[in-house]
Specification:
The protein is of the alpha/beta class and 229 residues long. The chain has five helices and ten strands, in the order ββαβαβαβββαβββα. The protein has an eight-stranded parallel beta barrel with strand order 1-2-3-4-5-6-7-8. A two-stranded antiparallel ribbon has the order 9-10.
């Protein structure tokens, strides 16, 4: 089981970011937008984003979520300029936030661009069944019908026969952790093939709130302590 806390930003105190022990793995993610960087709270400037990645690379698993033009470019087979500094070692995974039409058309090309650079791609998915054509292709798939809007998911599709890494997002936060999904994922130390991603409900006045991140991890610790120890 992996927990992804998305949206650390220019005000985030890196020294105060919580870490975890061995019960489950923790990943932090940075939102990347060429037009919004440094202009909106959840999109840090590229300079600040690179600084945070360099500070965290040795102690945390990190991801970047491409939004807007960089996402469209990589799905069109172009190498976005952001990959000059979003490189393996700084980020383990890159999520491509795009509409379904562009994702379906360009996912294979984008996958090759990232895998060639030693980075695992993540694709958003919004349907009720998992994309079997991506299974076994070295990609991770995130069910995310909310798209960072804080909309609570009402229908969590089961894994079924899908064997790849799958993630769940949609209005999750410290007050509504999907414990049913976590239970279904099995003992956390056995696999990272399932993850849950949180973004909007970790924010206060649109800034990443480390206190809410701590609340999430404390609840996760309590859950695993009660169920597995």
């Amino acid at each position: 089981m992996k927990i992804t806390l998305t949206g650390i930003d220019s005000r985030t105190d890196i020294a105060r970011l919580p870490d975890v022990g061995g019960e489950y793995s923790l990943e932090y993610a940075i939102l990347i937008s060429r037009t919004k960087e440094g202009k909106e709270p959840r999109y840090p400037s590229y300079i600040r984003a690179a600084q945070m990645l360099n500070q965290l690379q040795d102690t945390h698993s990190m991801a970047a979520h491409l939004c807007g033009a960089p996402a469209r470019e990589i799905l069109a087979g172009q190498v976005p300029q952001e990959l000059d500094w979003l490189r393996a070692g700084l980020v383990d995974r890159i999520q491509i936030n795009a509409n379904e039409k562009d994702t379906l058309k360009g996912w294979a090309t984008a996958t090759q661009i990232l895998i060639d650079r030693g980075i695992t791609p993540i694709f958003q998915w919004r349907r009720d069944t998992w994309p079997t054509f991506m299974d076994g292709k070295g990609v991770d798939v995130l069910l995310d019908r909310s798209g960072g809007r804080g909309l609570v998911e009402q229908n969590w599709p089961p894994r079924g026969s899908y064997k790849g890494n799958i993630g769940y997002a949609g209005g999750l936060g410290p007050d509504n952790l999907p414990l049913g999904l976590i239970k279904d994922a099995g003992k956390p130390t056995t696999t990272d093939s399932v993850w849950i991603d949180m973004e909007s409900n970790l924010r206060t006045d649109d800034w990443f709130d480390s206190h809410k991140a701590v609340q999430v991890l404390l609840k996760m610790d309590d859950y695993f302590e009660y169920n597995y120890n």
